[in-house]
Design a protein that fits this description.
Elements (H helix, E strand, L loop, with lengths): L1 H19 L11 H20 L3 H8 L6 E6 L17 E6 L8 H10 L4 E7 L3 H6 L8 H7 L10 H25 L4 E8 L10 E7 L5 H5 L12
Parallel strand pairs: 1-2, 1-3, 3-4
Antiparallel strand pairs: 4-5
Amino acid sequence: MFKKQLAALLAAAAFAIPLSAHASSDHAHGDADVARAYIKEIQADDNAYIAAHNSAFFKKLAAGQHPRATVITCSDSRVHTNAFDKTPEGDLFMVRNIGNQLATAKGSVQYGVNHLASSLLLVIGHSSCGAIKAAGGDYSTLEDPIKKELDTISITKGGANIDGVKTNVNNQVAAALKEWGTQVKAGHLLVVGAVYDFSDDMKQGAGRLNIININGETDPAKLRNMPAPAAAKPAH
């Protein structure tokens, strides 16, 4: 357990330091010894996962996918599907990048919506986001590919991180509505923006997934009156 926690901390540091080190071009480094230990844990966890599922489960996965949701979320190691869906296999088509952006992964999102026919396009930002911190400051010393991705995040410089996170989520929803407005109007697609707030910056409880935008509507009072009907999840 300690090794797993150490590996997670190192992975988080490796992501966070380059995005926030605006005054320096120094890079963080991992540790191959930690990697060797961690790959054994991954293999052990995979064996346990296999043991917990019968052959019919994997046979159904092999037959194809029909995900109910395409999810655009951040690459941050603290944001994972187990926080939103206990059994995400075949249900969540995951698209991840720094800053949970449509622009830098449009083809992947188009595949989920246009070809896999997801009914929900879910954009998930998160508290304490390193990409938002970087985009809200001076990131001129970072590598060109990283700068290119940060350039597509449009937020106020120097603002509070959580405000930038919410603005970015709303911007991504707006971009998605431009792309799939016809499907939304026809009732084929719901576009939802949310913030996974493990820091409790929104004061709704640490770890809560806060919905802040549904098809462009951001008024909290109206959002409370816009619940989607519950849909039964297909058995795996």
